[in-house]
Amino acid sequence: MTRITANEFTGATFRPEQFVQSERRNSKLNIDQLNLFVESSPENAQLTHDLITQVTMDPVLKTGSDYYDMDKAQHRKATALKIAKMALYMEQDIQMAFKKYRNHDVVKGLQTDNEYPILTAKDLGIFDKRLSIISNQDPQLGTRIGVHLGLFGNCIRGNGTDQQIRYWLQEKGALFLKGIYGCFAMTELGHGSNVAQLQTRAEYNPKTDSFVINTPDLPATKWWIGGAAHSATHATVYARLIVNDKDYGVKTYVVPLRDPDTFQLLAGVFIGDIGTKMGRDGIDNGWIQFQNVVIPREYMLSRFTKVVNSGNDVRVLTEPTLDQISGYSALLNGRVNMVMDSFRFGSKFATIAIRYAVGRQQFAPNNDKSDDASETQLINYPLHQYRVLPHLAIVYLISPAAFKLMDTYHTTLEQLYKVSSSGNKRELKPVSMKLKDLFIDSASLKATGTWLVASLIDELRQACGGHGYSAYNGFGKGYNDWVVQCTWEGDNNILSLTSARSIMKKYADLAKGNTQTSESFRYLSPELVMGVLKGSHSAKLETLEDYTDVWGIMLIKMLHFCVKLVKETKSTDSISKHLVMISRFHAFHSMLRAYYLKLKDPSDSHVTDENSQKMLWSLYQLFSLYFIDKHSGEFQQFKVFTPDQISTIVQPKLMGLLPEIRKECIPLTDAFKLPDAMLNAPIGYYDGDIYNNYYNEVIKNNPPEADGPGKPEYHAHLTTMLRRGFQETEDLGKLGK
Amino acid sequence: MTRITANEFTGATFRPEQFVQSERRNSKLNIDQLNLFVESSPENAQLTHDLITQVTMDPVLKTGSDYYDMDKAQHRKATALKIAKMALYMEQDIQMAFKKYRNHDVVKGLQTDNEYPILTAKDLGIFDKRLSIISNQDPQLGTRIGVHLGLFGNCIRGNGTDQQIRYWLQEKGALFLKGIYGCFAMTELGHGSNVAQLQTRAEYNPKTDSFVINTPDLPATKWWIGGAAHSATHATVYARLIVNDKDYGVKTYVVPLRDPDTFQLLAGVFIGDIGTKMGRDGIDNGWIQFQNVVIPREYMLSRFTKVVNSGNDVRVLTEPTLDQISGYSALLNGRVNMVMDSFRFGSKFATIAIRYAVGRQQFAPNNDKSDDASETQLINYPLHQYRVLPHLAIVYLISPAAFKLMDTYHTTLEQLYKVSSSGNKRELKPVSMKLKDLFIDSASLKATGTWLVASLIDELRQACGGHGYSAYNGFGKGYNDWVVQCTWEGDNNILSLTSARSIMKKYADLAKGNTQTSESFRYLSPELVMGVLKGSHSAKLETLEDYTDVWGIMLIKMLHFCVKLVKETKSTDSISKHLVMISRFHAFHSMLRAYYLKLKDPSDSHVTDENSQKMLWSLYQLFSLYFIDKHSGEFQQFKVFTPDQISTIVQPKLMGLLPEIRKECIPLTDAFKLPDAMLNAPIGYYDGDIYNNYYNEVIKNNPPEADGPGKPEYHAHLTTMLRRGFQETEDLGKLGK
């Protein structure tokens, strides 16, 4: 039945596209200004728009609905083809970043000219953004390149000397997806989060001035290594530095794995495929075992730890302050990106579910059973508004925090690089302080953002009913691809605990007179803390700022409670459940604060239209109220709000905002400016023609034969079963005779 | 690296199996008695054991780790082979149920002998259980047979006359997976939950005394129909009965789709494949469109609605009381089974995650960095105990409620069948009352159970870190297969709303003096309600019974609040968020009550061992406390507990139970008696040898070639990329000349 016949009928036939379009006609919002707000600036918005157009139009890079029918082998091949294409875009992006396009080949310069500066993360900014945007339609591609650039690359950038950085990343060409392809061999079968306990060994041999890499036992097998199974020619390996039988702890080394021409494994390198995963099968995760693999001393990344062989004795020199931090700095880039991913991935599914909720009808008003009573749109049910609209607010609230974090990351790492090159000790402390704050914020925002989006996808899929379960509407693969973000590059629970412990330490330090300067810890001001503890400063929801500040008050009360408990119990175990909450609430506070500051300042928000401003403030309030209500247990238990305040203030305000935001829910999703090709989910396409679009994608991917799907290949087994006769049983009487 | 070499090494090498085994050595529990408790009786326990052995040993039925690497086509074929094998077991199961094995073929009798009784749901009890157990290792198989027996079969059984039941289910052989294979054509592209608004038309033609079935437009296309794409020869179709242009609403009809011999589609039947889904790809869900398909009048299922053609006039006779209920009764069976599935599926993943948590080590105590400090087992972290152990309690608490519901279902439907045959009006009311209570309980337990297990799988996967994301440890496919249970056969939100509305009505009826007799509504006793509202009866946690009763008190207070609000607002919309909670809390109360009654009575619980009793009571308390804490927002807001009671009673009790239950967590999972073949997840195998088992399954399914995974087929694209030269740019200067 085609689009035409679908409209031949009257009566109950649905016209979902008319609902969606009328929402747009009646809108009072300025979509372009809203887009500038979520994309943080006109320059960013333009760049995002150009990149989206390119990755959705490029015949190699684009992702259609056939994507949902690919098996592992097909995904891996398609991903490889896309990587090769991305490499060409990359050279162009670097060229543009250098603004040296005429009569000049920047890449050649970087590879061959020693006078050329070392490429900074900023120089790769355009390509990083391209990667983050294409990850939104094909996450596995993002990972497969991200492991090479973000993990392998940043491991060298963070732990290598300037010569090593220049050699591996520029001369050899790694940064341009040339010459070598890298993977990041940190995790082992038996060790994930506990990096300090990794068991792979790198023993220094003074006679040959080289390291011998070994995998001592099965649990020390490098595991989950993205790119190892098929793509990688080199790996940055985390292994224990052993010199003269002394264990200096885990350091990093560049270890060649394959001949880049033949892709043959090198001597002593054993590699296997880890096989099928919950999602992201386009990534060739592998395992690696080393048997006496020899690498020259120079392959150890020696920015902070050096092995010096004077001939008659061997010494190990270490820069204590930065050595440890830098070991993890490779993971920072991933965490910061995952916060941005949370915004982009979330915006996709919010758009799909809200357009479906507007177009889909179910039950007549008050369950009126008469045939002519036209059915109610899902979005008009208060329960459905409560199920979907807060997720829209979540997406809007993640954006400013994500852009702010990205910015802090770039500036801080640039400083770190400068300081560690200059070796200026005095400048070390302030930088490492900044780095520590960056670790806390990125950890709590990564954990919170990825968790929020995991439940966003799950709850919005359920809000789309059965059609949400169809592969072609994207929720299934979307969820399977997404949830690994809650585990890798720092398990969300571990990250929450570590960040919360550091926040507790900051809180405890207040007593010693150490005050906080960074914006995200402003709730730790001595005045506010005293006011809250004395009870002179209590929570309210009158001004817009209050909606951020209540979370600061909540945090102070929980921190106070935890610090007290730890003093008594001498252990943080008893409060680990609370610590996870503290990290989450800290992230909420950072998100609300970043959003508040941006929206308050039109020159920063780029939103001058009054209705749009008003709506953005409503989303801000909805976010805060939704989570106060979700966590009303903590808010009442720690006496931030009384039970009656929850009933008479928080919940009525919350339920009151929903119908108001519902009025503009379609324009608010249009403002993300995601083309259908990026959504890749027919029930969420722009024109709102749910049933025809969905039906057409299903038919396209499952064309019925002339006579329906026809006989299945296994048809004989069924007919044999259906046609079988009776199982006559023996006449046992006879046998008895 | 093999099992042997893995043990050649000392030092940091892990010995997870030793941890798991020592837990068993130190246990004080009686595993056999615990198993009798969760399996509800010795007979059930024995039957479960026998069936598990059969489905895990049978070479056709068993499911290995290769299952996780199958594509859609492979899954569908494997499922068809399993169906054919299950058909043979089925005949045996019916034979055994009849206890007429000698000199007699029961199936032949049922198919050919009119004196034979009509087969009841009880007679199929053994096979139903076999189905429910095999669904635990291969859910898609369970569905594919379940749609035929449970939906197609029960639709005929619930809506057909005795002759129709005998004809379709016995003579034609449907009940024995013979002759015809059925599907259940209810849902349409445009209509899911709102059955009354389905648009497929069945127009009666008096001249030919037949119905003409039509699909009026695209949204009326039958959609999601399990078995339609390839397997089904017949369908029970939900369509509007139109007689002389009058619409009598939605009735049910048996419509032939394919020739059972050739599997060719019949005239006017258009069928397509719905394609890939989030999970359960072994089910051939399809779409169906009817174009003037003619069926004889006798194919309308006419137990409650008849079309009588006297020759000169046509009348439609309806039995109002039961007609509507029976329309949905086909779905009851599925809902009841899903509560049992929740117990079985949950027990599988609880076992995997807890064995992993005991075997897996991470970080030294107090993050001691020294190499020799052996690392802490995950399960010894309070946070990890809080993350996994409550899920163990959930599984234990679902079991008694699931068995009780199954029992009520069988007795109630038998009564319904008797009454509707006898046509004895006086007996109608009590039965339909029972049926309504069954609808409420099954709805709230189905919604709550399936939601609990969805988050159980998700949270326990995260508790297994990266290894939980590997396909071979079962969480991925397990989650994808499971979550559809939250949507189909009654969307969880819709079910929650309808059951909660009925509970509200019962509460309101108290004022009219209508009291409740059924166990699951005991909290609606006038005395208790008055006591709670007057404040003379307040919540406490002293006796074991209190742990159930607090939920009754919570429910009364919420119901009171909601009824009041509805009186004011004249609509239930404003409280829909609360209604979902009421349904959830009602389910918690039913689960706790059923568990309490069973455990209190040793002749019912079969647990005489004191330690085991004590531990079962601890799980009971943990369940109640865990959810009081999770919902402490509601408990404080509705003043069941004060903030201080939450801090000083609920949470300390909760955290205090965890270490106690942790001591026996391995035996408590062993008590489910799930063999490795049923778990199909190496990190959860019985011997606890996590790393060797997991590594071996990965190698088995991804055997490395002599030289590692070797060159990927797409290798050329990568080398071309890595070997590409520089992009010389024109000397524009020259061109300028």
TrEMBL record, chains A, B:
Keywords: FAD, Fatty acid metabolism, Flavoprotein, Lipid metabolism, Oxidoreductase, Peroxisome. PANTHER family: ACYL-COENZYME A OXIDASE-LIKE PROTEIN, ELECTRON TRANSPORT OXIDOREDUCTASE. The keyword RNA-binding does not apply. It holds the Pfam family ACOX_C_alpha1. InterPro entries: ACOX_C_alpha1, Acyl-CoA_ox_N, Acyl-CoA_Oxase/DH_mid-dom, Acyl-CoA_Oxase/DH_mid-dom_sf, Acyl-CoA_oxidase, Acyl-CoA_oxidase_C, AcylCo_DH-like_C, AcylCoA_DH/ox_N_sf. This is Acyl-coenzyme A oxidase. Residues 544-722 form the Acyl-CoA oxidase C-terminal domain. It comes from Lachancea meyersii CBS 8951. Its cofactor is FAD. The active site is at E489 (proton acceptor). Residues 328-504 form the Acyl-CoA oxidase C-alpha1 domain. FAD binds at T187, G226. GO terms for molecular function: acyl-CoA oxidase activity; FAD binding; fatty acid binding. The keyword Kinase does not apply. Belongs to the acyl-CoA oxidase family. One of its GO terms (biological process) is lipid homeostasis. It is found in: Peroxisome. Residues 30-170 form the Acyl-coenzyme A oxidase N-terminal domain. Pathway: Lipid metabolism; peroxisomal fatty acid beta-oxidation.
